[in-house]
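hey so i finaly got around to running the thing on Flavin reductase family protein from Williamsia herbipolensis. pasting the sequence first so u can double check i didnt mess up the copy paste, my clipboard has been acting weird all day
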Amino acid sequence: MTVTVTDLRPAADGDALRSAYSCFPSGVVAVCAEIDGVAVGMAASSFATVSLDPPLVSLCVQHTSSTWPKLRDAPSIGVSVFSAGQDALCRQLAGAADHRFDGVTPAVTDSGALFVPDAAAILSCTLYNEIPAGDHNLVLLEITALDADPDIEPLVFHASTFRALEARA
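ok and heres what it spat out for the 3d tokens, dont ask me to read them lol
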């Protein structure tokens, strides 16, 4: 037996679309590099794993971003998976560009990948490809080196707020 669905809202309804997108929980990452001695970075909640061979991850960046054009040309980009409890830091990296690293002591590699402290995982990446996708660009990053601690709980973004994971038996 099937049930007929009659109350679907059009995807052009921005509020309905945002509400539907918010139903899907996602991890949150910092995407950062040191450029000419200056820390440049942003938060992204559209992060996803893509491929093992080659090792790829993706994120989506709005066309209006003023930070991504600076990061795009960096020789190495650091991706830090925020850990639980780093919601204030995540909000800070999503805020005003000139205050994103206030009070933060990031770690940096020789190639310029920059990482936030106490992250659940850090990935040193290079730009693999960038694909226009609506009002965003789909950015594919190739991982060149990494470190991770699966015992550290990640920060989760769901329904426009930060949440914790719950292990189930």
